[in-house]
Amino acid sequence: MPKSTSPSPGSPARRPANDLRARELEKEVRQLKQQLRAAVAGEERFRQFAENSADVLWIVDPATGELDYVSPAYERIWGEPRAAIMRDLAHWRELVHPDDRERVAGQLPGLRRGESFAQDYRINRPGDGEMRWIHDTGFPVRDEKGAITRLAGIARDVTAEKTHLEALATSEERYRLLVDGARDYAIFMLDPGGYIIYWSAGAERVFGWTAEEALGLSGEIVFTPEDRAVRREEKEMAIALKNGVADDRRWHLRKDGSRIWADGVMRRLDDEQGHPRAFAKIVRDATAERLAADALEKSRQELEFRVLERTAELTSANQALEKEIRQRSELEQEILLISEREKRRIGQDLHDSLCQELAATAFLLESNAQRLAKTNRTQAKAFSEAAQRVNDNVGLARDLARGMHPVELTSGGLADALRELAYSASNPKISCHFVSRKTVRVADEGVALSLYRIAQEALTNALKHGQPTTITITLECARKNLTLRIHDDGDGFRLDDSTGGLGIHIMKYRAQSAGGTLEIKSKKREGATITCTVPVATCNPPPPKKGK
Fold first, then answer.
1. Residue 159: other Cβ atoms inside 10 A
2. Residue 181: predicted pLDDT
3. Rg from Cα positions in the chain
4. 3-class state of residue 250 by DSSP
């Protein structure tokens, strides 16, 4: 076979082919340069976007499964340098919350198969251990031919949104539990036109309508016919619209036609701009309390009527008793006065009759003694001794008459009678004084006699039982109260022992009959004080008349 030869480079046969190839290469070079410039420009735009994004942009090589790129936002959200995850993608999986780790790791194989994903998961920051919620979106990056060249995604920190949503969910759950759990309260909402837009489980129980039945109906369904006739609901809404709240305490109607006493309130609900948006009504079934209150009020009225009747009966009985007490007191006063008058009569008889007869007898005996003095001294002495004894008995009779009839009480007044009483009780061993700083005159003879007898009894008790050396009788008047006080410095006595004594009872009875009170104070070896206080209209003498 002959050896072939090729044309030389400079021959005419090769020059056109070389020029075509050169033009093709030059075109390809230009296209490569354009692609290079576009790639450089696109990379720069991507870099600027990624470097300034608040979200984390990541790119994974599908062949090796290693990170090609992760944006700077990773360091702020994950809390560690990017180098830690660029070296080992498995490190990123370790930071995922254990409960979410398996689910998140299963997304990468699907991504390699061309499947996109969007998921939420939790991470634990390695620096401070804080848990954060991440919303991660992954997608495959394909070339012109549809081949997957990169796996990319955007990770965003949604912790704040999650916290807000959880708080909102919790709040809504609490609201639902509160509203639906408050089965004793009917809670429903009305739109501005008065139509029901919400009906709670409590409203179903209280009023009998289900939510399906009530929604869309007028709020008047719960009002009685008489309240509907006067447009009570419209008036209530007008008050709530003006004041923000309106009380709702009246009889309401149930689905079955029965009535309940509602204790509730209607409130205006405003939007964020403060414009009225709806009305909320909260009603409590207070029928039992109302019926109990009505029954209690009826019982109270009946009781008041019975009390009035009984009061009238008691008033009548009390008036009769007071009348009887007054009559008894008047009778006792009359008895005392009769007793005093009888004592006075006996005293006057003793003084005017017996004392005179005894005095005459003593005078006759003394005359006979003088007549027989010269002839029969023995008989004269006997007559003289008899006359002396009769004179002594005259003194005793006069003292007895004075005690039964204090002459000074009617002539000189109570003060003079007490002064004479004190004087008669004095002796060489006992000093008895009467003290009165002002002139005291008592117009009521019964009161004067009672006070005198109290002083007489107290003085007798002190002389008999107390063995005193000094006794003071005081009479004073102040603020329309007349006070008689008898004090001694004797041995005193125990009050428990004295309560049954006749003298104490007599003094108390005398004080009570005079309309006063009796107070007794006594201490062993420190004496006793007996005080009687009587209210009187006046206990001072009237002023002297002019010209006298």
1. 16
2. 59
3. 63
4. strand
Closest CA to 233 of 241, 223, 243: 223
For 259-289, what is each residue's pLDDT tens digit? 999 888 899 998 888 888 899 888 888 888 8
Share of the chain above pLDDT 90, in %: 16
Q: Are 226 and 249 in contact (CB under 8 A)?
A: no
pLDDT in tens, 283-321: 888 888 888 888 888 988 998 899 898 889 888 888 888
pLDDT digits (tens, 9 = 90+) for 78-102: 989 988 888 888 888 888 999 998 8
- The contacts of residue 249 (CB under 8 Å, 6+ apart) are 261, 262, 263, 264
Q: Which of 283, 251, 253, 289 is nearest to 266 (CA)?
A: 283
**Helix pair 287-349, 502-513: axis angle to 10 deg:** 110
Token pair of 475 as six digits: 């009479």
The chain-wide mean pLDDT, for the chain, equals 80
Report which residue type is found at 548: K
Burial 192-230 (b: 16+ CB within 10 A, else e): eeeebebbbbbbbebbbbeeeebeeeebbbbbeeebeee
| CB contact at 8 A, 260 and 254 | yes
Looking at the predicted structure, is the pLDDT value of residue 72 above 80?
Answer: yes
**DSSP annotation string for 388-445:** HHHHHHHHHHHHHHHHHS-HHHHHT-HHHHHHHHHHHH--SS-EEEEE-SS----S-H
pLDDT, mean of residues 2-28? 49
The rounded distance, in Å, linking the Cα atoms of 501 and 499 is 6
Q: Quick one: tokens of 162?
A: 């999650």
